[in-house]
Amino acid sequence: LWHSSISKNDGEAAMHVDKHGSMNRRDHLKLIGAAGMAAAGLPALGQTSNWPDKPVRWVVPFAPGGTSSIVARSIGAELTKQLGVPFVIDNKGGGGGVPAMQEALRAPADGYTIVMSHIGLMAVNPLIYPDSGYDVNKDFTSVTLLSRVPSLFVIHKDVPAKDFKSFVAYVKSKPGQLNYASAGNASAGHLAVEALKVATGMFITHIPYRGAGPALQDLIVGNVDMMFDGLGSSAAHIKGGRIKALMVSGTKRNPAFPDVPCSTELGLPDYTVSTWYGVWAPKGTSPDAQAKAIEEFRRACQTDEAKAVWANQGAEFPNLTGAQFEAFIKKELAKWSQVVKASGAKLD
After folding, report:
1. How far apart are CA 271 and CA 264, in angstroms?
2. What was the pLDDT predicted at 6?
3. pLDDT attached to residue 206
4. Which run of H or E residues covers position 56?
5. What is the pLDDT of residue 132?
6. What b-and-e string marks burial along 222-236, b requiring 16 or more CB atoms within 10 Å of the CB?
7. Can you tell me the distance from the alpha carbon of 253 to that of 67, in angstroms, rounded to the nearest whole number?
C-alpha cells in the first residue's frame, strides 16, 4: 500500500541502503513520512460509497416504549432489509438525553454511529442545559428529518374532566395538586405542557422520567395525572379507555381521533406543538456516507411497511435534509427560546 502511494522521489529514497544492506535512518524517516502522508489521504472506513459494510449503531436517547423507539425500530428494520447489514437500536435513556448525545459525540465520525434525536434534544436542550457538553451546530451533522408527529394531550381515566375546558377549570380549582409526566427535562412533552400552562394559567407540577415509555406507563396506572404524548404510543391506551385524549395540538383534528378537538378550536390559535424526529451523525462524517444515508433513509420511509407504522402515528414526511434541515432547526430554536423564557422552565 505504501509503495503504491508514495512519489517517485520518495521511492528512490527508500532504495538508499548502507553497505550492510540496511536502510539508513534519514531515508527510513523519509519513507515513513511519505507513507504517513499517503495514509492520511486515504478514505476512512465508512467514508466511501461502500457505506455501510458492517453493522450501524443507532443511538436512541430515550428508554424503549416511546414514539422515538417506534420510529427508530420501524425505520431500522427497513434499512436492515435494504442494505443487508444490521441497524442496531441502542436505547440510552435518562438525563434529558444529554448522556446519550455525549456518547454519540465520542464515537468515531465514520458513519457507523448515528443518533436519533428530536425537538427536545436539538431545539430545547441547548436552552435548558447550558453545560450539556455538546453543541448542536458544531458537534453534529444534520442528516435528515424523518417525520413530524402530532402531540396529544392525555389524562388518566379517573381525572374528573370530560373535555379540555372542564379539565382547565378542575386544575385551577386545585393549583399545584396535580402533576404531569414527560420523557425528561427539556423533552418535547416538558416544554409542551409548560407552554400550555402559560397559555391557560394552569399550575401543574412536572415529573420527569427517563423516556416517554416509562412516563406513559405511570400515567396509565394513575401515578401521574396527565402528559403530552405522540399519537402512536398512546393510541391503543386511549381506545382501551385507560387514558383520555382531550386535545391534539395544531390547526386540524387527526383522522385517527376525529372526535378530539385541535388546539385552534379550543381557543389556542398560537399553540401548535408537534414532535419531530431526525437523524444526526458526529461532525466529520464524510459527505459520501451522509449522501448514502440520506438516500437510504428516504427509501426506507417510502416502503409500505414504514408507511403503515407512520399512518398509526398520524405522521407527516417533511423530507428535509442537509442545509434545509439545519435551517429548520434554527427556526425551532428561536420558537422554543420564547417558550422557555415565558414559562421560566428549568431543570427540576
Report:
1. 7
2. 32
3. 94
4. strand 56-60
5. 81
6. eebbbbbbbbbbbbe
7. 19
SS (H, E, C) 102-152: HHHHHCCCCCCEEEEEEHHHHHHHHHHCCCCCCCHHHHEEEEEEEEEEEEE
Helix, strand, coil percentages (3-state) for the chain, rounded to 5, are 45, 20, 35
Total residue count of the chain as it appears in this document: 348
Q: Quick one: cell of 61?
A: 436517547
Instruction: Please list the ranges in the chain whose pLDDT falls under 70.
Output: 1-49, 312-314, 343-348
Q: What is the pLDDT of residue 312?
A: 67
Please report where in the chains the cell 429548520 appears, as a residue. 328
Sequence-distant (≥ 6) Cβ neighbours of residue 15 within 8 angstroms: none
Question: What pLDDT does residue 339 have?
Answer: 74
pLDDT at residue number 328: 86
| Cell reading at 157 | 381515566
Per-residue confidence (pLDDT) for residue 221, from 0 to 100: 97
pLDDT at 346: 63
- Residue 269 CA: distances (Å) to CA of 87, 137, 250: 40, 31, 8
| pLDDT at 89 (0 to 100) | 95
Cell triple for 338: 420564547
CA dihedral 182, 183, 189, 191 (to 10 degrees): 90
Cβ 64 vs Cβ 90: under 8 Å: no
Cα-based distances in Å from 326 to 116, 119, 142, 280, 330: 15, 12, 6, 11, 6
pLDDT of residue 252: 86
Measured CA to CA, the distance from residue 118 to residue 125 in angstroms comes to 10
The three grid cell numbers given for residue 104, joined into one nine-digit string: 454519540
Burial class (CB in 10 A: 0-12, 13-18, 19+), 275: buried
pLDDT, residue 49, reads 59
